Amino acid sequence: MFTLSLSTLRDRKQLFAGALVAIALGVALVQASLLVLMSVSDPVIPSDLPHAERNEMREGFVGAAMLMGLQVPLVVFLAVFVVGSTCAFAVAQRRRDLALLRVLGGGRGQVRRLLAAESLLLGVVGALCGAPLGLVATWVQARLLEHVGFVPAGFRPTYWDWKAVLVAGATGTGIALLGSWNAARRAGRIRPLEAMYDTGAAARVMTPGRWCVGLSCLALSIVLAVGAQAADMIGAVTIAMVLAVVGAVALSALAPLVVPLVARVFGLMLRRGALGALAEANIRDGVRRNAAVAAPLITLVSLVLGLSGALGVLARSIGVEQERLTRGDLVVTSVDGARAARLAGIPGVADVSTRLTVPVPVTAEVRRDGAEAARPHVFDERVIAVDPAAYARARTLAPASGSLADLRGDTVAVGSAVPAEGYRPPRVGDTVSVDVAGHERTLRVVAVLPETLDIGDEFLIPREALPADLVAAAPAESVLMVAPGASVAEVAKRIRAAGLGESTTVARWAQGRADAQQDGNDKIFAVLLGLAGVYALIGVVNALVIATAERRAEFAVLRLGGLERPQVVRMALVEACAVTTIGLLLGGLVAAAGMAGTARSTAAATGTAIVVVPWGMLATIVPAAFAVAAVAAVGTARTATRERPVRLAGART
C-alpha cells in the first residue's frame, strides 16, 4: 500500500504540493510557539541588574508567557483548519481516481488504507520539512516579541527542544490524518460510477458531518449574538471574541451553501461581460473549490475584526470610563512631587488632587485559587500616595467597602488591580507590609475600591505616611479644578510657563489612557496574528493551486470553444477576486454580529455606544488577500494553460 501511495504522490505532485506546504508551515508555527513559550516561561534574568529593572524584566516575560499561551491554541486552531481543509480538498479532487480504483476491484477498506498511507507520508514529510522551518519561525517570533517590548533586546529563545519538535510533528501528522479521514470514509461509501461522472452522492458537497458542524456552530453563534445584547461590557467583549471563532467555523463549514448564494448577488455586476458571466457561473458551479478558497479568508477576517474590535472597544471604554469618573478641568503630569506641590499656588486653580507614584514594594499574606499562599506575595513595587480628601473630591468612584475618610496614618486602601492578578484582595481590617527605605511598616486596610475597566491604582496610602524626600522625588499626576470664571486655557499657559508640568484637558487625558491601551492591543495582535495571518493567506494559495491544477482540461475546452489564453487567465483572475471578496465580506459579517453586542453593552454601561473597526489592520489584510489571490490565480492559470488545448481537452487532468 505504501508503494502505491508513493507512486500516487509522485504522479500527482502538483495536487499534493499545497497540502505538504500547509503541513510544513503548520508544524513550523506550532513548534515555534512552543519553543518561545518554553523560553519565556523560564527566563534567565541577570542578577546584577537593579531590583526595579529585574522586576520590570520579569513582568515582561510573564506577559510574553501569557501571550504565547494564547498563541499556541490559536496556531493549533489555524493548523487544524488549514491543514485539515487542504487535505480533505485534495482527497475530494481525486474522486475520479478513487472511483477508477474501485471499478478495477479495489475495496472500500483498500481505498481508506491508501488515503491513510498517503496522509501519513504527507504528514511525516511535512513534519520533517517543518522542523527546520520552525527554527526560522522561532527567530521571527522572538524578534516580534522584542520589537513590541515584551522581552529585552538580544533575547535568545531556545531554538531546539526534542519535546517541542516531536509534539509539533505529531500535531501536523495527526491533523493530516484527521483531515483526510472523513474524506476517505466518504470516498469509500460513494458508488464508483457516481464518482466517475460526478453525480449522485459524489456531487453532494454538504456531507452530514459538515451539516452538523455548520448548523450547530451557527446556532451557537446566534445564541452568543443574542446573549451579547444583554450582557455587561466585559461579558459582551468576551462573547465577541468567542463569537469570532465559532462564527468563522460555522460559515466556513456552510461555505458551499453561502458562497454560491452571495455569488448570485455579484452576478448582477459580473454578467455585464462575457468573461464575468463565465466567472460567475464557475463560482456557482465550482462549489467545492470556491468554498475551500473562501474558508481561510472567512476565518482570518473574523478573527482579526472580532478579536481586535472587541479589545478596541475595551480600550475605548477605558477612556470613556476614566473621563466619567474624574472630576476636574485639567490633568497635569509633573516630573516630581515638589513641582506638583506648587500647582495650588497658580492663579485660577481652585482645587488640586495629586497622585504620586512612589517606589515602595507591597507584600501581603493572601489566598490564591482558594489556597493559602506559600509565602507573602509581592503585589507591586510601588504605591500611590494621595491626600485622601482631595482624592475623594476628584473621583466619583466610591469605595466598595470601608471609607477613604479613614485613610490616615499607617493605613492603606486596596485598588481594583489586585484581584486582576488572580489573588484574593486584602479586606477591610487585614494588614499589608511595605518596605520604606529599608524599614518594614505594617498598614491596616481601611477601604477597598471597586473594580474598573482600567487596572490602575493598586494601593493608596496617605501622603504623610511616607518620608518627605520620597514624596518630593516621586512622579506626579494632578487633577485640577479651575476656579469659576477663570479660563482653563489661561491656567494651562501659566502652569507651562512656571515649568510645573504638561497639562491637558480631562477628555484628552482620558483619550490618552485609551490610546495607550490600544497601543498595547496592537502590539499583542502583531505577535498573535502576525505569522498566523500569513499562514491563513497561504491556505488561500494552497486552495487555488490545488483547484486550478485540476482544471487544465476545463481550460482547454474553453480555449477550443474560442477563448484566447489571456482571456482564460483573466477569467480565473476575476473568479479568484470575486471569491476573495465573498470571503472577506462573510468574515466581516461574523465580526459585525459581535460588534453589535459590544455596542449595546457599552451604551448601557457608559451612555455611549462604542464600536471599533481596526481600519489599519483591514488596510493591510484586504490588499494582501487580493494580491495573494490574484498572483496565485494568474500563476496557476498560466501554468495550467501552457500546453496546447487539443492535447488536454480529453485528458484526465
Into which percent range does the helicity of residues fall? Answer: 55-70%
> From the helix content, strand content and strand pairing, which structural class follows?
alpha+beta
Q: Round the Cα radius of gyration to an integer and report it.
A: 31 Å
Number of helices: 23
Number of strands: 14
Number of domains: 3
What is the mean pLDDT? 77
Q: Shape, please? A: elongated
User: Stretches where pLDDT falls below 50 for ≥5 residues?
Assistant: 199-203, 367-371
The share of residues in extended strands comes to 5-15%
Termini, distance in Å?
A: 24 Å
> What's the main sheet like?
12 strands, mixed
Family: Belongs to the ABC-4 integral membrane protein family. LolC/E subfamily.
Subcellular location: Cell membrane
Organism: Embleya scabrispora
GO biological process, one term: lipoprotein localization to outer membrane
Describe the structure.
Strands 1, 2, 3, 6, 7, 8, 9, 10, 11, 12, 13 and 14 form a twelve-stranded mixed β-sheet that branches. The protein has a two-stranded antiparallel sheet with strand order 4-5. α2 (13-41) runs antiparallel to α3, α2 (13-41) packs antiparallel against α19 (530-549) and α3 (51-92) packs antiparallel against α12 (287-325). It is α+β, with helices and mostly antiparallel strands. The protein is elongated, with a radius of gyration of 31 Å. It folds into three domains: 1-204, no CATH class; 236-325 and 511-653, no CATH class; 336-500, no CATH class. The protein is 66% helix and 10% strand. The longest helix has 42 residues, at 51-92. It is built from 23 helices and 14 strands.
